[in-house]
Amino acid sequence: MDEQDFPLLSWIPLRDEYLDEVLRLEGRGPYATANQCPRCTTDADPSIRCSDCVGGELLCVPCILKLHSRNPLHRVEKWNRTAFERVSLASLGLRIQLGHPPGTVCGHREPARSDFVVIHTNGIHIINLDFCGCGLSSTLHRRQQLLRFSWWPATAIDPNTAATFAALKKYHLLSLTGKLTGYDAWRTLELETDNTGSSSLPDRLPSWMVMIREWRHIAMMKRGGRGHDATGVAGTADGELAVQCPACPLPGINLPESWEAAPSNRAWLYRPIVAMDANFRMKNRMRSSKTKDPGLHTGKAYFVPDDKYDEHVAAHIDQEEISGCSRFAALTAANLKSTKGLRVTGVGAIFDARHDFWLPNGLGDLQKGERYCNMDYMFFSSISRIKTPSLLVSYDIACQWHKNLPTRAATHPDWNLPDDIDFAVPKFHIAAHQEECQEEFDLAKKRGTGQTDGEGPERGWSNVNGAAASTKEMGPGGRHDTVDDHCGHANWRKIVGLGSSLLRRMKAALLQATEQGDIYTEFTKSLELDHPEKLAEWREQIHGWEMHERGPNPYKKPVSGACYAVRIIASMPGFDNANTSFRLKLRLDKNKDRDGTSNQAARVQESRTSILRLLHRFRADQDVHMHHIASIINVDESTQSHNTLRPEHIKLYLPSDLSERERAAACDPTLSDMEAKFRYAGACQALDDVRHQLRFRTYVKRFKINNVVGQRKNTRARTFQSRIDDAVHRAAATYRLHRAAYLRLVGPGAWEKRLRELLDEHLVGLGERLLDQIDLADIERVKEYLRSRRGPSSTGESRYTLPWIWYTAGGGGEDEEAEIGDDLKLEWFKTRARSTRWMEEVLHLLEEMRRVPETFKVWAREWGQRSTARSDIPADLAEGLAAYACKHVAMYDALRERFTGQWESLQVAATTFLSNREDDGMDVCAEAAEPMMVN
Fold it and tell me: Looking at the record's lineage, which domain of life comes first (predicted)?
C-alpha cells in the first residue's frame, strides 16, 4: 500500500502529536524570550503577536505598530499572563493616514469618526482613520481618497464605512462560483471577528450589500471597456456589456469574406443556432419597486430593457395562444400555478445552442407563465444582433410557438425575421411530443445541426438556479444586476474552457463519425447490391427534403401492420371477449417457471389465484361462444396429472390451440378470424420490439466501448447487456409464438414473406457486427499473434448481409408481398442521418476552431485601440487605462496561442479524415468532403 494514496492512514498514529502542537500555539510559543523584544532588543514587554503574520513571534507594542503601518488590518493578540486575548491595532494606538505613503502623517490631517468600520477578508475592523487635508490630496473627495487606498466607500457622501477591494473581490468570486449570499458572507465575517458573541459588533449589513452591488456594476463596466470610452457609463448601448461567444458566426469578425456566397451544401456552416426556454425557479417576490430599487445596468447586458419590454407585455396581455399538441403541458401548467405574492413567476432566455452562451438582451421576466408576448420580445431583441440571413431556433414548444410568428412579428416595427428560418425541438424534449411533432421538429433530422442537442438552456439554468433563493427576495433592480453578473461569469468561464471543450468534442466527433460512417457504408453497400433502384429513389427523396423540404417527410413513420390489424379488430363484434382471452393467454405464458424466492413465490401464487378467477369467467363465456368445446377440454384435462394443472399450464383452447377438425366443430369462423388478426398484430408488434431492443443493445455496446473502463464497471455493463439480451430473446420468443399460432390458423401464404421464420442468427442490430469487432479488439490482437505463428486462417463471411428483420414492408395488411419497404427505408434514413450529423459535427468544430483565434485577434486589436482612445485626461488615469487595455491584449493573445496549440494536431487529423472520406461512395461524405475550411 502506498502512503501517498492513503495519507490519512499514516496520520492516525500521530494524532496526539498534532494535537499537542496545535495547543502549544495557544501559549507564547517556543520563540518567546522573557522581558526582551526580539526586534528592538529592549526590556519592553514582548506581549503582542499577530495572527496574520508568519511566525507568530511576540513583540512589544512599538514594534508591532511599526511593523503594521503597511498591514493595518491584521489581527493581533495580547498575552495577559495566562492566555492570549483579542485586541485591535487601533486600541494599541495605530492610526491609518490616507493620501500619504504608509508610515507618514499629514500635517493637516482630518480625523474620521471614531467608529470608522472597514470590512476585510479576515473580519470587521474598527480603526483610527485620518483623511488628508494638505495640498497633496485635499482636492480629492474623501470617497476618492478611500478608493485610491483600495477601500470601497459605503456612501459617496462623508463615508464612515468601507470594504477592501480584496474582500469585495473574494466575495464576488465566491458568489459566482459557490452562490454564496451576501448575508452568509457577512455572517461569516462576523464569526471570523468574534465567534463567542461576547463583543458588540457594528451592524453594517445594509452597507455591505450596497457595496457588493456597486462592485458588481463597476466591474462589469470596466470589463466592458466603458472606462475607455469618452461617453462613459451613460453611453453604454443595449446589450453591450454581454460577453459574446467567439466560436459563433460573427460577420466582420470571424467569418471569411466569401461566406455569404457559400454554396447550399455548406451554407448551414454559417447559420447561428439559438435555443429558447423558460425557468420557473427564478421567481421574485413583491419586494421594493423599480422606482426605489432601479437596475444599475438593466438592458445593457442580458436582460431586455425594462420600459420597452413592460410596454409590449401590457399591450399584448390578452394575446391568444395556441396549444394543439396533446403533450403540450409546460405552458399550461405554468399559467395555472399560483402567482400570489410574486412579481415574477420565472424568467425566459435565449441562448447560443452550440456553446450554451447567454445571448445579449435575451433574458426577461415572466409575469404569468411562459406567454408568447414575453418570449417573442426576448427572441426578437436577442436576434436583432444576428447579421446572417439564416437561423435555426430550438424551443421545447417550437411546434406551437412558430405558428403565426410572422404575423406576430409584423405587429412590432423593429422586429424582422431572417430570410431563412427553421424550427426544432431539443433532443431530450422531443420524445414528449406527438409523433407528428417528432417527425417535423427533431433536431437529429435537421440538416446542418451536427450534434447540437438544443438542451443548452437546461445547462444554463443550472448555473443560475443556485442563486434563485437569494434573488427571490431581492428588489427588481438588485435582482437584475445580480443575475446579469452570474450570466456574464458563466459566459466568461465558457470562453476560458473552449480550448478543452472543443478539443473533447472533436475527439468524440472523429470517433463517432468514423463509426457511424462505417455503419452507414456497410448498410448502404448491402442495399446497393440487392436493391440499387430503391436506394437511388431514397437518395433522391432525402436530398429533396433536406435541400428544399420537397415531397413527403422521409422520417414519417409508416403505419405498422400491428396498428392496422388492431384497428380492424377493434371494430369487429365480440372484440372485448377476444381481447380478454388474448391478454389472459399472455399472462399465462409470462407466469411459467417463475417461482423464484419465497417472496417471489408468494407473488406468483397471488397471480395464479387471480388468473384462476379469470379462467372461471372465461370458461363460462367460452361455453357460449365455442359450442362443444367442453367435451374437448374434459378429455384433454382428464389425461393430465394434478400437478400440471397450475394456471400457467392450462390451455385456453383458443382456435389456434385446436386442430382444423376440432376448430370446424367447436368454433364459429368469426372467432378464428378474430384470433388470426390478433396473432398477426402480436407478431408485428413483437417484431417491432425485437428491432427496438436490438437498437438499444447497439447503443449500450457503443456506450460501453467509449466510456466503460475497469473490471468492476465492465462487469456491471455486461450484466446490463445480458438483461438486454434476455429482452431480445423474449421478444423473439413472443414473435415465434404468434407466428406459429397464425400459421396454424391461416396456413402458408404470401404473408410468410413478411413474417418469416426468426432464427437466433437473425437477431443482429444495424452496425452491431462492427461494434462487436471493436469490443473484441484485444482478442483479435491475440488471434493475429497466433496466426502469425501458425499461418493465415479463414476470416469467415466474405460479405455481410443484413438480417431479414430489417427488410420488412410497412403497408396495410398481412397479405402484402413487398420484400423491402417503409420499415427498412426509415432505418436507412435514420442511419444516414446519424452518419451525416456526426460528419457535420466534425465540420462545425473545425470551423469553430478556426473562428475562435480569429475572434481573439479582433478583440485584442480592439483593446489595443482603446488604450489611447481618450484624450485630455490626467496622466495617471491615462496610464491606468493603457495598462488595463494592454492586459486584455496580452490575455487574448495568450488564449489564442494556447488554444491554437491545443487544437493543432486534431485539426490536421480532422482535415485528413474528411479528405479520406471523399471517395468512399457515401453521398453524405462526398458532400461534406468538398473544400469547406476557410483559411
Answer: Eukaryota
